[in-house]
Every structure is written in C-alpha cells, then in structure tokens.
Give the backbone structure.
Amino acid sequence: MVQPRQGGTEGAESADGAGSRPLWFIPPAGQEAQRRVLTRERVVVEALAIIAEHGVDALSMRALATRLGVVPGALYRHVLNKEQLHDLVLDGVLAEVDTRIEKRLTWIEQITVLAHRLRAVLEAHPGIAGLLKTRDPLGPHSLALAEAFLASLSGAGLPPRQAGLAYSLIYGHILGFALDGPSSVNEQRVRDTATRAELHTFLRALPPDRFPTLVALGEHVWVDNRDERFTTGLDTILHGLETTWPPTGDAAA
Amino acid sequence: MVQPRQGGTEGAESADGAGSRPLWFIPPAGQEAQRRVLTRERVVVEALAIIAEHGVDALSMRALATRLGVVPGALYRHVLNKEQLHDLVLDGVLAEVDTRIEKRLTWIEQITVLAHRLRAVLEAHPGIAGLLKTRDPLGPHSLALAEAFLASLSGAGLPPRQAGLAYSLIYGHILGFALDGPSSVNEQRVRDTATRAELHTFLRALPPDRFPTLVALGEHVWVDNRDERFTTGLDTILHGLETTWPPTGDAAA
DNA sequence: CACTACAGTGAACGCCGTTCACAGTCAAAC
DNA sequence: GTTTGACTGTGAACGGCGTTCACTGTAGTG
C-alpha cells in the first residue's frame, strides 16, 4: 500500500476537492462548498485585498482570518495551507493580465505589449512577484499567459525549442524586474534623492585602483531608471532573438 | 529634534562599530571586539554553515545561537538584526566568486566566464539568491563583482549608460536564474521524471482551442534544461548587445 | 425525525525575531 | 592594587506566526 508519492509537493489532497491531483493544479473552483459563510473564493479575494492594502508580508493566516471574522483554524477548511493560498492568490493576480493580442502587430510589438502588461499587473500587487518566482502556478491564467507569449514567439518563426527558451528568458526578465519592484529596499534607497546622492558620493570615493570602472560610471548603474532598464533590457533580448533567428525563416533545425 | 531619517533602512547604528554609516555599508570587520567567545565573523561563518547544510530557510537566530552554544539574545551584540545578518552572509558568499578576468578573451567570453562563476557560487548556496534579489549589498565583494562586469562591458566599447543597463540586465538574468535554482519547487517537479511525464500529459490534454501553442510545444518549456536555458539566454542577451552596439565602436552617442 | 457530513470554535503546540534587566569579566584609570 | 566602567553573554519574557485537533452546532439527506 505504498502509493507512489510524486516528488516535492506532498499531502496535497483533503481540503481540496480535487482528489489525487497535484497541489499545483488549481481546479476551476466551481460551486463547491458555498453552503457556509466562508468560501475558497472569499478567502482568496480577501487575501488579495490584504496584499493590496498592506503588502504581501502582511498576509498572515491570522490577519486573513480576522478580516473574515473567523478563527484562524477555520481557514484550513478551505485552503490546504499557506502555500496553496499563495498559489490561489497568484492565479487571481495573473487573471488581471489581458492576454489578448492584436495579430496585426509585429511579433516584437506583441511581446512588448504583453511584457508591459504583465509588469504593470505585477507591480500593482507589491510583493507578488516574489511568490511567482519560485512557483509555476499552472493555473488557467498562468497558462493563458504562457500561451500568449508562446503564440507570438512561435508565430515569429522561432523553432519550438527556441520559442520555449525565449519565453523563459523574457518571462524571467519581467519577473526578476518586478521582483525588486518599486517597493523593494533597493529601489527605496535609490528613489530617495538624498540617499542616491550619498550613494553616488560613496561610489566616487571608492579606491580608484580597485574599482576604476565603478568610480567612473557607477552612477549610471544605481539610478532611478526602472522604465529605461525594463524597456532597453527587453529590447536587447528581443533584438538578440531577432538577429539570431531572422523573421519568417523556415523552421528547419 | 526631528533628524532626517533617510528612507528604508533605519536605526542602523549600534551593534555596528560604524557610527552613522548606512546599514548596507559593511565595514572591513577588523579586529573589533574579539575579546569574547563570539565574533561577528564567527556568527557569519556559522550562519553560512547552517545554510550550506540545511538551506537558507533553516537559518534562524535561535538555530544559529544554539549552534554557537549561546543564548539567542547574545547574537544581537554582534549583529543588528536578521536583515543585517543576511547582508553579511551575502557578502560572504559573493567573496567566493573569482572576479579576475583574463584580458585576452573577447568581452563576450569575459562576461560569459563571470556569469557562469557567479551562477555556480549562487547555486552552491541554495536559497541565497533569494536574499540577493531584493538587496544590493554594496559590500566589498559585491562591488568587486560589479567592477568586473562593468570593466568588461566598458572595455567592449559600450557607452557608460548602456554598460550600466547591460550590467543590470545580465546580473538580473543570473540572479533570476539562480533564484528558482535546482532546489526550488519548480525544478524539483520537473526534475522528477514521473512528475515531468505527468506534466507533459497534462499539457497535451489541455483544450487545444484555448491553448493551441501550449499543447503543441509546451513540453519544450518545462524541461529539465537549466544549463541550456542559462547559456542560450545569456547568449541571446550578449548577442543583442553586440549587434546593438557593435564592438570597438567609438563612444559617440 | 434521526443521522451524518462538515463549517467554524477554542485552545493549544512549537516555532520565530527581538527586547531588557542583570550578572560576570576583563581592561583601563587611578 | 584597587576601583571603575565598558561590554559580552544570560535568562526570561513578549507578541507574532502556521498549523493541529477535539469539540459543537447546524443544515441537508434519507
């Protein structure tokens, strides 16, 4: 009776109505169990509200329970644990990304539009990117997003494997970017004018024999230039893709 | 008496010997306060040991204190709080990156070598990348790393601002990559053959009208291909940089 | 009407980071 | 050589966290 537990995620069935499916599959959440005051949906909605109001760190089971007028343990009737709550919250956020693409645009324009939409949504929910980075939700909205990116890349003439790799690269760029978002410690530091000036002074005062380049152009690195960094970074990636696999090339190896 | 607290990092002076310098400046840690059993250095070393043995999540002040044969509160004589401990640990890790570069290599080869070294060190300390991503240590070793990258990029003929942006892009790629490292949930899932097969089946079974591309080439996205993803991603970025600012171009605008 | 499935309760367990009055000890000052 | 003072480590506590579990009451089913 040793049933094959598949690696990593364990004990994922019980509060879930989904039987033996892995934790990271999020069921369509139909009209299951809405007989009582609490619903999985309501739990997730209020979790999102807490994050929106006080950031992702403020999302504790206890705070969430209090907000729902309920005792902490009650949440565990609707959510397996905090990790699954994170998964659900994530898919809720990704639902806000508009994945429709205008087919008359260049594939580069398509990717750019998608990327900016995703970035906007992620930065609208401070701290959320941190959850995404170590997780592939595989919920419906996450899948829709991947589909949109892959469709554009594939339509650009990239062979399947390259399209997959390109998606990983672009997706990683966006996530990594949103991750130290405007609310991160780094950006706070650099945004504050006084601190930034202090930082530049610090850089200029470094021993020039050990850090010649930093002394010379360090002020170009730590700048409040999120938009520029995001855009030119994305452009560089796309440009690299374009020149490596020129458009409308046939899909031969 | 309202003294100007500058944003984000607060109250950073007391256990530090550094007077009014900001938290994220890490002093050379000379022979300060080694009269007793505990040293800041010893604290950091054992913290690193805990991370090496049990991962970054296992690093708690209490566990660290126990390991040092000391009561938890004692740590606060040598470290301001857990965040500063993280900063110190980070710089300790970055010290392991060899930042010397062979000047006879192409700038692309130089960057590639540096990138692979950084990735290796980060993946050797599971979970560390997660600390780095929301933090710019500005410790000596972090600076040395930035110096190395910037020197190569600058030597390639990139104008200052573009070099800074390129560094951010490359650094972000490496960090983002190490972040969902081999120990992350994602990779565990995909590494397990049975789970991966299950995942591919899941992808193939998706409704083809809503996810045509995913069904067709989804198996190319979630693959155990970390090396390939890292390398071709980096290549794409470097290629993009190369074709955007061709080598040995003069630095005019 | 009896039964049962189950949502929510209340209390506890064992973690966590951090604070603080206090004790012991060593080095400098007299 | 004694006093003084600075400072490291102690012990105990505070408030918070995620999670578990025996229980209660109610709502729907037979």
About this structure: Residues 33, 35-38, 70-71, 73-74, 77-78 of chain A lie near DNA strand C (CB under 10 Å from a C1').
